[in-house]
Design goal:
Layout lengths: L1 E3 L5 E9 L4 E3 H4 L7 H8 L3 E3 L7 H16 L8 E5 L10 H9 L5 E5 L5 H14 L6 E8 L9 H4 L4 E10 L4 E9 L7 E2 L16 E2 L1 H22 L9 E4 L4 H11 L10 H4 L6 H11 L8 E8 L3 E8 L12
Parallel strand pairs: 5-6, 5-7, 12-13
Antiparallel strand pairs: 1-9, 2-8, 3-4, 7-8, 9-14, 10-11, 13-14
Helix pairs in contact: 3-4, 7-8
The structure holds acetyl coenzyme *A.
């Protein structure tokens, strides 16, 4: 799917994040599996990640992220009429984490549902929220991307354990006077789904106790390097923009090598590329909003800038969006 905004202005007016307190270093992981800080840093760029406490589920980190995003936009939960949580690790299949959040936030008029598109979930959810607002169905959306992947990892499997971390981010989307989303490109390739899967997680193999992530790292690496470039190129072309127009590049934070490859191939310089995989690992649907928050905190993400976001993940799926950054929504506090 590919398309442009056709002049309807919908932007991100609030942004918030939350990560668990516990920091787990590579050295700590080397106590559980046969690995080393040197191997992990060289192959992935990851130095540490946040890991949820035993009694922490997705909603426990998604709620503070959502509250922070609403505060940032200067609006309250009751004004949200669409709430999407993109995740592969909801508290449970139902009630959905989005329904739980809607209740906690007082979003009584909100349509609330969880969205499943692997690590690309945040990009899919943002595109849906954009479409519903632009189409006049919703006025203000809260999109949360978050995962507690540590709960579905096999802590004795070094090939997956070292890559992931827990975290959540949230954004408020609403009509804006200037800027906003310019276009989206989203896709899926189910034929490659076998390379990243959670076999015991649904009706196909529900009786089997195998509920841990399985991954063919090399195949996912090849897929990732291909789609990170093709998806970004496609959305830029469709919007009539060039890579030189991109002020801030926010790639999915899966692996430093994938990010470096994509940025080099696209021709985006390092100083415009947001990288925090070293501190958080791959937080799946939390990855892009966490990177946006870091970019804003370090001053690289400012009003009027052209932001390119690209995600990829299980499905296999991918998705890009171009947005002219703005904070000038109807209820926005104006904080940049
Ligand atoms: N520590 C030490 N050695 C390891 C580890 C580890 N944690 N994991 C694998 N190895 C070993 C392998 O067994 C192999 O040993 P061998 O040569 O004796 O067989 C060797 O290291 C090399 O393994 P490769 O798999 O070839 O290593 P590669 O350079 O491909 O890096 C990695 C592996 C980091 C997983 C890489 O393939 C990758 O990043 N793939 C993409 C993964 C990804 O991004 N997944 C998520 C995307 S979607 C989403 O976000 C949910």
């Amino acid at each position: 799917m590919i398309g442009t905004a056709n002049g309807v202005r919908v932007g991100i007016t609030g942004l918030g994040t939350c990560v668990p307190e516990r920091v787990v270093s590579n050295d700590e992981l080397a106590r559980y599996v046969d690995t080393s800080d040197e191997w992990i840093v060289e192959r992935t760029g990851i130095r540490e990640r946040r890991i949820a406490a035993e009694d922490q589920a997705l909603s426990d980190i998604a709620l503070p992220a959502a509250e922070a995003a609403l505060r940032d936009a200067g609006v309250d939960g009751a004004s949200v009429d669409l709430l999407i949580v993109a995740t592969v690790t909801p508290d449970m299949m139902f009630p959905t984490t989005s329904a739980i959040l809607a209740d906690r936030l007082g979003a009584r008029d909100a349509a609330a549902y969880d969205l499943l598109a692997g690590c690309t979930g945040f990009m899919y959810a943002v595109a849906q929220a954009y479409g519903m607002i632009a189409g006049g169905l919703a006025r203000r959306a809260l999109v949360v991307g978050g995962d507690v992947l540590s709960k579905i990892l096999d802590w004795s499997d070094r090939s997956t354990l070292v890559l992931f971390g827990d975290g959540a981010g949230a954004v408020v989307l609403e009509p804006v006077a200037r800027g906003g989303f310019l276009g989206f490109e989203l896709g899926a390739d189910g034929a490659g789904g076998e390379h990243l899967w959670l076999p015991g997680s649904g009706s196909r193999r529900f009786e089997e106790p195998d509920s841990y992530v399985k991954m063919n790292g090399r195949e996912v690496f090849k897929f990732a390097t291909r789609v990170m470039v093709s998806s970004a190129t496609a959305v830029l072309e469709r919007c009539g923009l060039d890579v030189a127009d991109v002020d801030v590049y926010v790639p999915h934070q899966a692996n430093r090598r994938i990010i470096d490859y994509a940025a080099a191939k696209l021709g985006i310089p390092q100083e415009r590329t947001i990288v925090n995989v070293d501190r958080y690992g791959n937080t799946s649907s939390g990855s892009i909003p966490l990177a946006l928050a870091d970019a804003r905190a370090d001053g690289r993400l400012r009003e009027g800038q052209l932001v390119l976001m690209t995600g990829m993940g299980a499905g296999l799926t991918w998705g890009s969006a171009l947005v002219e950054w703005t904070t000038n929504g109807s209820g926005a506090s104006g904080a940049a």
